[in-house]
Structure formats: structure tokens, C-alpha cells
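re: that chain from earlier
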Amino acid sequence: MDYIKAFIIGGIICALVQILMEKTKLLPGRIMVILVCTGVVLGAVNVYEPFVKWAGAGASVPLTGFGNVLWKGVKEAVDHEGFIGLFKGGFKACAVGVSSALIFSYIAALLTKPKLKS
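^ sequence. v structure.
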């Protein structure tokens, strides 16, 4: 049942973002920033974490989940290290995810030999 709930919640989030992309003239990069910032704000007001506990991967995998992880990392670092935690916390919390995305995308580029569009 956890898989079904995660699939449905993740699908709803993706469908809402697709509607946002279709109905506005916002560029994809701006929509991505909106999603990450939404995750940060919802994490800061302590709404997103209970949602993640209920929805599982359906809420933690989309970009709003990335924003929530950034928020948690910054909050923990500020609590332990003070002001410098503002700059270190997000990097530390997301290092594994960002590093793996870079490494796997590099491997995919080596295997598929992508070309620029004309």
C-alpha cells in the first residue's frame, strides 16, 4: 500500500506541476526554483515533514522534497555551528544526492554520446 500511496501522491504533484507548465509562460528553470523554494517554505513552517512521513517517496522524491532536505540541513547546521551553518548546511545535507546525479548523468552521457540539437 505504501508504493501505491507514493505513486499517487507523486503523480498528483507531477500533474499539478504539468498544469503549471501548460497554463503559464514560466520557463522550466523558474518552475524548478519555485518547487524547491516551496519545499523550503513548507519545511520551515513544519508542514512538509509530516506530509513526507505520510506520503513517503511520493513527497520526498519531487523537487519540493529537495527543498525540504535543504531546509533541514541548514536548520541543523545553524543549530550546531551558528551563522556559518547557513552556508554549509544545505551542501552537507544534499551532497550525496547531487553527487550521484552528476556521476550517473556523466556515465549516461558517456554511454549514449548525446549531440546538440541544431
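The CA atoms of residues 12 and 41 lie 20 Å apart.
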